[in-house]
Amino acid sequence: MKRLLALICVLCCLTGCAGAEKKEWTEEEWESVVMALASDEAEPVPEKWRASFLSGWLPAAEKGFINVLLISSDAPDIDQNFGRADAILVCRIDLWTGETRLLSLPEDALVTLPEAPEPIALRYVNCFGGAGLTARCVNDALHLGVSHFCAVNIEAFIAIVDALGGVTMELTEGEAEALGLAKGAQRLTGEQALRYVKLRRTGDGSTRVRALLSAVLRETTAGGSVKQVLGLADLLLPCVDTNLTTDDIVDLIFALFGQNHPISFDAMGLAAADGGLNADLAAQSREFLYGGK
Question: What is the pTM (predicted TM-score) of this model?
Answer without folding.
Answer: 0.80
